[in-house]
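anyone seen this seq b4? input:
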Amino acid sequence: MRPRPLISQFLLALALSIVIRLFPVPQQRPDARSPFKCGDTVAIQSARTGRYVEVAANNWVYASSYTPTKPAATFEVHCPGAQLVQTLLATREFRESSNRVQST
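predicted toks r here
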């Protein structure tokens, strides 16, 4: 009789799906917390070149410093207020198109 194996396979699949639903696999989410605190001094290193980001005399930012202790290559961490965070979340990303700015 052919129907018996089909029924047993169906029951096995049903049992496994119930077990999986009863014991869900915990989903891993990336930790959004930063290891930095307000007021910390940090240096930003380029992964490609190994150089550190610094602000030049013309106020442009370059990855040109070989040391993280140079004053132009150190930055202070500032914590944004709740209003700034809400504004940034609302704007997300903007791209220029012709003479107008469009939200994406």
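Residues 43 and 69 are 8 Å apart (CA to CA). The radius of gyration is 27 Å. kinda curious what u guys think
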